[in-house]
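#help-structures
NK: newbie question, is this the right format to request a structure? protein is EF-hand domain-containing protein
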Amino acid sequence: MKCIIFTLIVGTVLSQTYHHHDIEMFIDRSFKYVDTDHNGVMVMAELDGAFDVLDVDHDDKLSYAEYTKYSQSAESQLSHDVYNHFDTNKDGFLQRTEYVDSVFSQMDHNGDGQVTRHDYDHFFTNVVQHEMHHGHNGR
């Protein structure tokens, strides 16, 4: 019973921060964008290629405008929070090491060089939960 009550409370709090549908759509669209061969598995070369496409001025870093260039949720709080989460040095840009190297190694938890859709979903669910509790919305 305590578990059910806790789940309901957490669900209510989280739904006030981000809409569940928005989270699902964000994760789904981003995976489809980076999984360029559409085989359900992402490799680092695909994430690196996505970085290259987004980096329109070829300065090896992504501004927020570049990061959300193809996003339908560019002005969403979720997009801002995820971008800021990846910007670990807090300079307002995503360096290739922050967006590709660091993120891929975190998603590839078993070190096989492949990120399955399950790995991707799990990683982004954790990022969103972290942001809800510690990021912009959790402050």
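mod (FA): yep, format's fine, and the tokens are attached above. Confidence is low (pLDDT under 50) at residues 1-16.
NK: thank you!
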